[in-house]
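Retry 2 of 3 after timeout on previous attempt. Resubmitting structure tokens to design endpoint.
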């Protein structure tokens, strides 16, 4: 009876002892938890997150490196293709730079040409607005009347009927003369010599009828064509003189050049240089002689004060009067 009671008491004691220890450890755990809450746990958590991020980044880099190592051949080919494309682009850029430099040079030249064209345009407009009336009258006379065969302007016109080669030479000569006249007009080059102005209708009406003689048909046109022939004679003569002795010798006209020079020494004028021609000069240029009809025309020109006569050593010279 007492043993059973003693055993029961021990069992009850052990139970309460076990409960006591549980309560004790629970209290200690609570105290430890409270103490842990007071410690900087957040910093440890941040450090842990940083470590995890670093490891993740490292794993990604390793993964990328692994992929690159596995596909290095393909990447090498792509890099070579990219290198070739870059080289082509670089070459294109170099060509573009060269083209730009050329365009800049051409632009500068075009600006100079544009300035010259503007200058020429102004000169042409000025000349168009200031055409001498005698030139207009001469042009109208030339267009309204066909040239007379007895007053050829240039001896080459006769020779052009012989052979095709002479035709080409005459055409080339006429083109060169036209180009020279255009240059002289555009660039205000001085004339080789003084020329005779064409006769106007008003002046022609003042010429007495007995001077003209029997030439009653196209008399004004006839005298103006005769003036053109004289002007061509003067231009041919003084063009040769302006070339100089060396150039005349090169052309084979040295004897004619010296003859013209000798004529100049025989005639002088106090007011300046005199331009003149002789019947021989006229025949040399036109291959026609000064007959009775032309002598009447010369008298009419003297009456209109286009020229005057000067006789030296039995040689009659027709001196051009100043305009």
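Retry 2 succeeded. Sequence:
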């Amino acid at each position: 009876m007492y043993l059973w009671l003693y055993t029961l008491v021990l069992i009850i004691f052990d139970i309460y002892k076990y409960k006591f220890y549980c309560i004790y450890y629970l209290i200690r755990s609570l105290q430890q938890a409270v103490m842990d809450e007071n410690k900087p746990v957040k910093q440890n958590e941040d450090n842990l997150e940083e470590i995890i991020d670093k490891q993740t980044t490292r794993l990604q880099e390793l993964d990328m490196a692994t992929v690159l190592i596995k596909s290095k051949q393909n990447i090498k080919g792509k890099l070579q293709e990219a290198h070739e494309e870059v080289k082509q682009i670089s070459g294109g850029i170099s060509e573009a730079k060269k083209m730009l430099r050329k365009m800049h040079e051409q632009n500068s030249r075009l600006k100079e040409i544009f300035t010259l064209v503007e200058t020429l345009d102004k000169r042409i407009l000025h000349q168009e607005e200031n055409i001498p009336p005698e030139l207009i009258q001469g042009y109208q006379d030339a267009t309204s009347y066909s040239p007379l065969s007895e007053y050829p302007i240039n001896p080459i016109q006769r020779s052009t009927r012989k052979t095709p080669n002479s035709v080409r030479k005459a055409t080339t000569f006429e083109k060169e003369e036209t180009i020279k006249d255009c240059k002289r007009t555009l660039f205000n080059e001085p004339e080789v010599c003084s020329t005779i102005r064409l006769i106007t209708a008003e002046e022609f009406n003042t010429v007495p009828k007995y001077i003209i003689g029997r030439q009653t048909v196209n008399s004004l046109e006839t005298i103006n064509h005769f003036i053109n022939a004289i002007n061509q004679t003067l231009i041919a003569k003084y063009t040769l003189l302006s070339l100089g002795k060396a150039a005349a010798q090169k052309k084979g006209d040295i004897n004619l050049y010296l003859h013209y020079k000798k004529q100049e020494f025989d005639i002088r004028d106090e007011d300046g240089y005199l331009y003149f021609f002789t019947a021989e000069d006229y025949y040399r240029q036109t291959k026609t002689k000064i007959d009775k009809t032309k002598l009447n025309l010369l008298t009419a020109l003297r009456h209109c004060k286009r020229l005057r006569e000067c006789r030296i050593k039995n040689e009659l010279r027709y001196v051009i009067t100043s305009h």
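Attempt log closed. The beta strands are 276-278, 307-312, 315-320.
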